[in-house]
Amino acid sequence: MRTLIATAATLLLVSECIGQARNYNIIFGSTNWLNFYNEQLTIIPSTFAVTARNATMSEPDGALSLVVDETGIHNASFALVQGGSAQDLGWPARLASLLILPKPEAPLHYFVFVNTPELDKQAGYVEVDMSLNLGAGGVVGSGTTWYMNNTTAKMAATAHGNGTDYWVLQHADGTDTFHAFQFGPGGLNPVPIISATGPMLSATSVPDRLSSDFRGPMKFSVSGDQLAFGFDHAPDSAGAAVFWFNSSTGTVTVRNSSLAYTAYDLDDFTGDTIAVTLPMDFTSGTDFLATGDFLYVAYLDTSTTDGDGGFFGTQYDLTVCDGCIPLTSLASNTSSVGLGTEWGADTTGGSLILGPDGILYLRNARSNEGYLLRFDNVPHEFNTTIGGLTVISSPDLHETWGVPLFCKRYHDSEPAWLGLREEDGRDPVFRAVPNPITERGVLVWGNSPPPDHLVWRDAMGRLVRSEPAVFRKGRPLGSTRVIFE
What we know:
The protein is 2% helix and 44% strand. It is mostly beta strands. The protein has two domains: 3-393, Methylamine Dehydrogenase, Chain H (7 Propeller); 430-484, no CATH class.
């Protein structure tokens, strides 16, 4: 007998680390939930109002496990885990960054990493055991373990070269130093690998919503061998830098720290190179294509004194020599805001992300508007400009906050499937629509026959009901589709 085990109450599959699994959600606002299933993006209505800084994580089988925001650590039912309120954890009212990683070789254990804002400038972690309290989860120990002082908001993680551990990377405020902390089965090693390389960041003394030195994003490439972050070349002149990262030693080496919003193009008549540079207020996004050959940076111009203002996307070719990278930049105004536009509440949130489908997305930061811009047909040839952007909009998208931090190599080997996997390794034989299922859902079948028995469990893993599969006239109902109400 073949048994299908499904999650009924909330089929919500969320992972903070991109890899080969086929189902993910991204939260980038109070009720903005994007679902990626087999490289197909859909928008899911959600009533759970997360705060501006948030992160999510699923079990390896795809079931939602944690949702963390500035109010604390929540389980799949959105209830606070035991000991998981912000007050219990000693968190300030505002946070700078959040990231979740699975504890190596410890099923159902996760570490929540948190960076505090400019006045605190601390990095800490909380261990959560989701097997506690009958699956409702709880904090291991009490409070937050603070492991670094004088941090920026920049935080990123990637897989260690040993195939088991992770590196959690921080950058010290007012310095040129990276701190790489090894995270393994024994927890976080508090003694970091320190690399002094790249630009000297300015010290942050007061909150500054447009400080690229403190809040500019930091991202690893999918392979983990490259790193990019935003910083301030000078006041009103935001830029970016790209680095090499050694995943075996944890060391960082600068490739180029002269990236800025400069568009290089070729004159059609003379063949001369034309350079156009505009000052930018903030580096709001960085990310790599999955191949690691191209870097994309989103710059934000909040004023209209030197133009229309808006987001300016820039492409850099990383296959050239390190010193040549700035000369390959292609740039365009990817999201003009126009005169008199009101900015949203979270200007400093990350705006550029490589989605689980391998496509780049740019979130909008305009007030009271919710939509994404999808980069089409990248990378672009040098003697062209960045273009081909598709607007993704829906009544279920609202004013945006920053897109979350991702560790892009959570599933390094076999994919995690929702349902039964085809024997030849192709797509799973069924999928759930919509995802999450609330009151009514559909199971869409592939090429294999439906099961003889169905076992439904909620998002906490608890049994909801067990029943034979539905038959009609002696044949299974829905050899391609089964509907449950």
